[in-house]
Amino acid sequence: MLLVLLAIILAMGGAMFLNRALTPEYGLDLAGGTTVTLQPITPNGSAPSEESLDLAVNIIRDRVNGSGISDAEVAKAGDNIVISVPGVGQEEVVKLVGTTAELRFRQVLAIGPGTPTPPGELSTQAPTPTPAASPTASPTSSGRQKAKATPTPTRPAQTAAPGPSGSPAGRALSSALTNPSPAPSATRGADASPSAKPRRNTPTPTATPKATATPDAGATPAPDQAAENDPLAGVDTTGIDPAALERFKTLDCAKENGQGAQDDPNKQYVGCGFDDLNDNDPKNDVYVKYILDKAALTGTTIDSASSGVEPNTGAWVVQLSFKGQGPDQWSKLTTTAFNSQAPRNQVAVVLDGVVISAPAIQEPITGGRAQITGGFTQPEADELANQLKYGALPLKFEKSSIDEVSSTLGADQLRGGLIAGGIGLLLVLVYSMLYYRGLGVVSVLSLVVATVLTYQSVVLLGEFANFRLSLPHIIGLIVSIGITADSFIVYFERIRDEMKEGRRSLRAAVEVAWVRARRTILIADAVMFIAAVVLYFLAVGGVAGFAFAMGLTTLIDIVVVFMFTKPFVALLARLRFFAKGHKLSGLDAERMSETTVAPKTAPQEA
Amino acid sequence: MSGIASRLYRGEVNVDFVGRRKLWYGLSAFLLLISIAGLVVNGLNLGVEFKGGSVFSFKPAQTVSIEKVRGTFVDAGVHQVIVQETNNGWRVTTESLPAEKVTEVQNAAAKGFGLRQNDVTLQVIGASWGGQVADKAIQGLIVFMLAIILYLTMAFEWKMALAAVVALVHDLVITAGVYAWSGFEVTPATLLGFLTILGYSLYDAVVVFDMIKEVTAKLGTTSKVTYTQAANDALNHTLIRSLNTTLVAILPVAAILFIGTTLFGAGTLKDLSLSLFVGMIVGTYSSLCVATPLLVTLKEREPRYQAIARRLAATGGAGSGVKAARQPVGATAGGTPAGDEKRKKK
């Protein structure tokens, strides 16, 4: 056990060195951070309403604290919103919160490659055609399918006919909207559809082999080359506003991707989306552009959105449900889309002018619940769910200032706190040595081991999970010393009980006492752990981070007691010094007085 | 070693916690009433993070230290001061100040750092820990209590779960009451302190209950002790552990509180350590004097324990109490009469 523990400590230490992470990441109060001021922009320039500001604050707070263990603050300052995130130069966070606006659902009217075909820059041929390439793949929807994205087993066609695409848009992550229950009706919507990710990366002109042919695709055949040069080739333009068509022709997603644009919900909209090719390499992301119908419903009607695994297929999916007018509007929108030809059978999710996903409708979805499938990885599903959930900001914002700020605590207070904590620890050490004598060594060493493990965990969590240590965490960790100490105090007292009976050797007592102490320790730690888990999942921001630290120390407590304290005491019990009850061992005659003062009486029931 | 210290050291203590439950109930009821009165009359002094406040920004003519900045604002009569250095001067967050006070503070700062009053700009800022965060924390708390009741009901029994959670609420209310009456500022750090107390107080109660469960499991119809006596023994048995644990946990907190209050007038350090300090003391008190007596009150209503109590009262009366005293709890046999005389009969 002791060796296993040593191995764990060494392994964690090794991981720390390998990642050059030797100190924890600190939170806002200890390290300072980046403060961003967001200024609301209203269409008519008037002051935003208090309610919409409050709502925006809450949504941004959810967004910023999305990871649960970071430690950000969001406050309203006059009409502005001030966001403070720990760490200097937190540009991703700034981007994240600065680009959120209202989420809108629009039916797709047309799709095209996101960039005009700059000769010599874009390859017009797929560089890696597959043997089974089908030359007649549709450049619009089916041209961007991805073979992998077939969560519904009733769509063999998709995987069956891989074909090269000449479209510079490349393939998009196909996704599809269905009712949450896997419905066999999905066969009709065999065409999966492009979805896009709002990444701001430069597009690369790598076209990749496509893997789809669908019953619908055959209905809208279009020659590859034509699609290259005219974004409207093969596009059914009925019902499309001429202005939108014009915009669609000229829109170059590489230059203006629509990010930050205020899309008017009552007009058709031309916007860009992304395709990340599902390989997590931003270099392979490509643009796709869309003509979208008027917004049919907005993000405010989303009740909840979550990511999860579809039990039948094991694929990551995003589930969402609607409230208020949502279910009705949604039902209408999906019915319309379902009865349309590709690509109009897709519904685009537009966030801040950017198409974040455009799943195909596999069936009219009534009842207000829907599920988006499409070969997501877990982070992609999480991201989309978060965008659906938190995207519906009631206002549009502009970044007005970005400041680097120092810690709110002040170095003097931190120093004072550390000194005080040190003094307190010293008192604890002195006390346990005085009270437990020889066993005090065990408790001191146990605390040292617990401290080392805690430090290592905090450093590694900072490195890999963005855990940021703030002052409350530190104090929480110091208090957890009490919990850790309690575990072996419980154990020691049990050993004393056994010894007081006077009929057992120390070695036997150590084992018998352990069985009983173990139960107590586990039950008590379980209580702490439940507290931590509940608070972690239900609370936000600082509280969640704190709960995280609490759960962590509880686990460390169990590890220390099981893998260090117990084996170490068992080891000591073999020593003469302890076994014979030396005066300084903590197991001496005086401590065990009752056995000497009063010899055993008749057994009594109790 | 002699006297109490020595007996404590050897673990020979025997206080009739359960027997004096009326005293504890009275004391707790009194404390709860005072606390609730404090919450109603005074309310909590919520910090900038909950209520919002005023933010002063300025760029001093020459370099100044954080102590100087904090000192200047505290001297100007501001209570809650959070000082931050930015890439563009200083940023001082204070509680929400009335207009005339703002001017006063601006003047003081301008004078202190060689600026004109206009150079000290004011921004009114809303709560960064608004209702939503607090609401979610409270939601979490309620779910947590339900989860704990469920868990303890499974691990022990519902009466223990109930007693533990009642003691928990007791601790929370009294700690909040201390805050209400003292006017100490409630910050997010304080809130987190409360949460620590919760875990801590429960932990303590669970260890005691585990022992009670073990001891009372042996109570049969021919038992020579009542549930009350057995529980009290279990309590005394874990008393050393409770005191040791509390001491070990409270020493660092006390040190932080001491430094936090003596060296720095206000701040996170003090807020956090104070809530912990108060909460831990109340938590230890409640697991000894509230949780266990409450459990006993609940359990003594059960027919089987009433039967034992009746039989003992009829046969031995006081004597039975003495005989039962000072059992090495958890031992399979071998009770000793060593502590008998110290024990108060029920």
TrEMBL record, chain A:
Query: What spans are recorded as compositionally biased (Low complexity)?
Result: 123-164, 201-226
The ranges of region (Disordered) come to 110-238
Cite a single Pfam family from the UniProt record.
Answer: SecD_1st
**What Gene Ontology cellular component terms go with this record?**
plasma membrane
- Specify whether Membrane is a keyword of the entry: yes
How does the record say this protein sits in the membrane? Multi-pass membrane protein
Superkingdom per UniProt: Bacteria
Among the GO biological process terms of this entry, one is: protein targeting
Please indicate if the UniProt record lists Cytoplasm as a keyword.
no
Gene Ontology MF annotations: protein-transporting ATPase activity
Q: How does it assemble?
A: Forms a complex with SecF. Part of the essential Sec protein translocation apparatus which comprises SecA, SecYEG and auxiliary proteins SecDF. Other proteins may also be involved.
The UniProt similarity line reads: Belongs to the SecD/SecF family. SecD subfamily.
What is the protein's given name? Answer: Protein translocase subunit SecD
Q: Which organism is it from?
A: Streptosporangium becharense
Taxonomy, top ranks, is:
Bacteria, Bacillati, Actinomycetota, Actinomycetes, Streptosporangiales
UniProtKB/TrEMBL annotation, chain B:
Domain (Protein export membrane protein SecD/SecF C-terminal) ranges: 116-300
Q: How does it sit in the membrane?
A: Multi-pass membrane protein
| Spans through the membrane | 23-44, 137-154, 161-182, 188-209, 247-266, 272-296
* Keywords associated with the record: Cell membrane, Membrane, Protein transport, Translocation, Transmembrane, Transmembrane helix, Transport
* InterPro entries cross-referenced by the UniProt entry: SecD/SecF_arch_bac (IPR022813), SecD/SecF_bac (IPR022645), SecD/SecF_CS (IPR022646), SecD_SecF_C (IPR048634), SecF_bac (IPR005665)
| Highest taxon above the source species | Bacteria
- Name its cellular compartments: Cell membrane
Residues in coiled coil: none
* SUPFAM superfamilies, sorted: Multidrug efflux transporter AcrB transmembrane domain
Q: Which GO terms describe its molecular function?
A: protein-transporting ATPase activity
Quote the cellular component terms of the Gene Ontology held in the record. Answer: plasma membrane
Q: Where is this region: Disordered?
A: 315-346
Q: Which GO terms describe its biological process?
A: intracellular protein transmembrane transport; protein targeting; protein transport by the Sec complex
Primary localization: membrane
> What does this protein do, in the record's words?
Part of the Sec protein translocase complex. Interacts with the SecYEG preprotein conducting channel. SecDF uses the proton motive force (PMF) to complete protein translocation after the ATP-dependent function of SecA.
Spell out the subunit comment: Forms a complex with SecD. Part of the essential Sec protein translocation apparatus which comprises SecA, SecYEG and auxiliary proteins SecDF. Other proteins may also be involved.
Q: What PANTHER family does its record include?
A: PROTEIN TRANSLOCASE SUBUNIT SECF (PTHR30081:SF8), PROTEIN-EXPORT MEMBRANE PROTEIN SEC (PTHR30081)
Family per record: Belongs to the SecD/SecF family. SecF subfamily.
What HAMAP family does the record tag this protein with? SecF_B (MF_01464_B)
Name the chain's protein. Protein-export membrane protein SecF
